[in-house]
Amino acid sequence: MEKKPVLERRNLGNTGLNLSCIGFGASPLGNVFGVVSPEDALAAVRRAIALGINFFDTSPYYGATLSETVLGNCLHDLGVPRDEVIVSTKCGRYADGFDFSAERVTRSIDESLCRLRLDYVDILHCHDIEFGSLDQIVNETIPALQKIKAEGKARFIGITGLPLEVFTYVLDRVPMGSVDVILSYCHYGINDSTLLDLIPYLKSIGVGIISASPLAMGLLTENGPPDWHPASPELKSACSAAAVHCKEKGKNVSKIALQYSLMNKDISAVLVGMTCAGQVEDNVGSALVLSNVGIDEEILQEVEAILEPVKNQTWPSGIQRN
Ligand code: NAD
């Protein structure tokens, strides 16, 4: 009998967690990329689970806590057994600003667990640490998160951010094993692959690697990015040209972009934001085609050539430290 293709799972650093290579980025459930109805959200999460996605990422920041509430309701209403999903949320970044104090993050996890309708999360990240004092993250926030871990409210601890140097700053200064994972975004896709430089260091210290935003937060989609997207006009226009080129050739830029990100197996999971069941199907389909047939090298090379002038171009984020 022919075997049904299954979405690949990968181990996350030293955590023992086995993540689906595509993770469900739940920021769209907070209406970050336009309004998503509760019905569409439920259908998307249901389809994700049916197609083998076991990893869901949210934050109290997304939609000013809406994303956590919607995700919690979906997982609850679908009756998903708790040990069959890996849920990550974050702390320190909120709709009204940043607060990485021990007091705030300790309160934050209880609020998140209540919205998510869970007793624990699998991963609790400090969210976008470049906006805080990195010494506070090292000396106050991470120790507070260790206590949360010891209380059983989070199984593993992570840090997230855009500039890659914040990861090394913190990891070089905290006790080994106190940060289990990093979540990087917009640095492992066709237009920007600078995360590559950090991977040997992360592997050498056993820190798990999650990469988010393979579609560069909408830049590598036919519909283009949302108004708030921070990329330069030059980067936006190059990505739009790549999308048009793919469409003219009967291809889809999002498919090739996601496949590119999935090809690096040192990255345990690629988090994609998905607004509906159709996008879940498309994205899981892209992953299955990649593992069964491989990537379309011709279109990849053409897209790489279009994006070459803006390769690795990024944007400032957080407190500028020099
Ligand atoms: P993304 O690159 O995944 O792009 C999301 C956009 O692409 C949405 O508009 C979505 O509707 C669209 N899309 C998804 N699949 C598509 C398809 N097949 N065809 C066309 N369009 C498609 O960016 P993202 O959502 O910002 O990142 C993914 C997730 O990663 C987030 O939801 C969040 O969970 C996480 N993330 C975390 C951080 C952080 O911690 N600092 C930063 C960015 C992202």
Automatic annotation (TrEMBL):
InterPro entries: AKR (IPR020471), LGALDH-like (IPR044479), NAD(P)_OxRdtase_dom_sf (IPR036812), NADP_OxRdtase_dom (IPR023210)
Top-level lineage group: Eukaryota
Gene3D superfamilies associated with the record: NADP-dependent oxidoreductase domain (3.20.20.100)
UniProt domain NADP-dependent oxidoreductase: residue ranges: 22-290
Matches recorded under PANTHER family: GH17980P-RELATED
Protein name per the record: NADP-dependent oxidoreductase domain-containing protein
Organism: Dendrobium thyrsiflorum
